[in-house]
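In response to the reviewer comment on reproducibility (Comment 2.3), we provide here a single inverse folding case reported in full, input and output, so that an independent group could reproduce the run without further information from us. The structure tokens appear first.
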């Protein structure tokens, strides 16, 4: 099951998006708090200015005109009581308005301020009427000693959280942020993807070109240099080992040929037959060792190959040689590969089936953009825990891969190397059906023309 969180690109993207959204939410919260504090300060300053202006106007007006001035202010949310006789019950307001009024009116003027919510408060005349009347009651005295009370309506309606096109702008911002975060995630993980592709390519082709050490972050350059050094070391090691194997196998052929000629002079027929059989096995091992070295080191050119014709021709050749092989099925496809290498690969699978399963049934079909060549034998199959081990060089099963059967343990190894060089694979499965043993399926990608 595909898990998107397995991708470092997706994780980087989510971290960028999540971190930015968290930072944005924090900034939005702090900005909203600061905005509320600023609006509260401005309302307090505005209320203090209105009270100061009213008191200064009443100070300068004749006593006969003060009632008329009070009636005018009543129309604008400020009620002036020129003969206060009853106090009000409320809470002490914030110290900010008290300090501002004392600073503007003078510290020698008596000032008492009460913050209250009741029906006696003047109604707020702004765009958002309050559910509960809220006002500040200021008790003070004019310069001539007249006691007055001023009730100033306050607006405490919270501002709407979203105004105008806020949601549209937020969605646009988030979409742009997502695109930007995805681009950054791709740029950040691109060196890792290149390294992974190079490692996969190295696994199927030791001669794959090294990574380009392009300018970039220091860590990426160091990783590319280290990977190229590792690739060069592996190539050198494989080349030295392969050359040694090839040289040993090649040099053994001459003495083995002389030995075979001398064995023909052995007078005892039974002994001669046994010695010749052992020598034949040894020569077969030498030949397969050469084939193995040739498969690893040779880089044969690729061309379009008709897989149906190639497989059918191999089956006909094997039938002419006396092998019990049947063939059916067509895929009507071509693949991009080396004809000689593919012949060696399919032949090894067929020889393996005939050698250990008495017969081989070969079929070709097309499935999911791949050509499938299946080889079924009539043997006893292979234990499940050994299905992967048989691909190891010189690995033989005790019961079926014995010296008497002529096996060397390199046939499947060579076949897998060729398959992987063609971007394919070989799958071994037990049929689990009477009279049928093992099925080897060679999967090869189709050529682009298909």
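Designed residues, in position order:
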């Amino acid at each position: 099951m595909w898990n998107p969180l397995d991708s470092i690109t997706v994780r980087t993207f989510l971290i960028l998006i999540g971190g930015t959204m968290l930072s944005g939410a924090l900034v939005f919260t702090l900005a909203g708090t600061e905005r509320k504090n600023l609006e509260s300060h401005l309302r307090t300053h505005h209320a203090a200015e209105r009270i100061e202006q009213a008191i200064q106007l009443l100070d300068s007006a004749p006593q006969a005109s003060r009632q008329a001035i009070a009636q005018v202010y009543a129309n604008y949310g400020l009620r002036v009581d020129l003969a206060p006789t009853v106090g009000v019950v409320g809470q002490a307001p914030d110290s900010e308005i008290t300090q501002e009024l004392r600073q503007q009116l003078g510290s020698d003027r008596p000032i008492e301020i009460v913050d209250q919510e009741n029906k006696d408060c003047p109604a707020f005349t702004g765009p958002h009427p309050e559910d509960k009347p809220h006002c500040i009651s200021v008790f003070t005295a004019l310069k001539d000693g007249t006691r007055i009370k001023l009730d100033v309506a306050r607006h405490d309606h919270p501002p709407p959280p979203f105004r105008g096109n806020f949601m549209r702008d937020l969605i646009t911002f988030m979409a742009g942020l997502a695109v930007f975060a995805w681009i950054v995630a791709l740029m950040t993980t691109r060196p890792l993807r290149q390294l992974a592709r190079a490692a996969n390519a190295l696994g199927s082709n030791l001669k794959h070109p090294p990574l380009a050490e392009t300018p970039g972050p220091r860590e990426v350059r160091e990783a590319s240099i280290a990977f190229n050094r590792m690739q060069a070391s592996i190539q050198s090691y494989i080349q030295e080992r392969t050359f040694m194997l090839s040289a040993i196998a090649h040099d053994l052929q001459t003495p083995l040929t002389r030995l075979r000629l001398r064995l023909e002079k052995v007078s005892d027929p039974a002994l001669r037959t046994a010695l010749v059989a052992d020598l034949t096995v040894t020569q077969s091992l030498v030949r397969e060792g050469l084939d193995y070295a040739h498969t690893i080191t040779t880089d044969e050119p690729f061309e379009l190959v008709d897989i149906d014709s190639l497989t059918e021709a191999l089956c006909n050749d094997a039938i002419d040689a006396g092998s019990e092989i049947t063939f059916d099925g067509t895929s009507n496809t071509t693949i991009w590969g080396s004809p000689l290498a593919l012949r060696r690969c399919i032949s090894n699978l067929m020889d393996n089936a005939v050698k250990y399963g008495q017969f081989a049934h070969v079929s070709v079909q097309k499935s999911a953009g791949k050509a499938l060549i299946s080889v079924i034998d009539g043997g006893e199959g292979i234990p499940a825990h050994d299905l992967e081990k048989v691909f190891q060089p010189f690995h033989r099963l005790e019961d079926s891969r014995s010296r008497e059967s002529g096996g060397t343990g390199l046939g499947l190894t060579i076949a897998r190397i060729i398959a992987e060089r063609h971007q394919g694979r070989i799958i071994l499965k037990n049929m689990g059906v009477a009279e049928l043993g093992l099925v080897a399926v060679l999967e090869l990608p189709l050529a682009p023309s298909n």
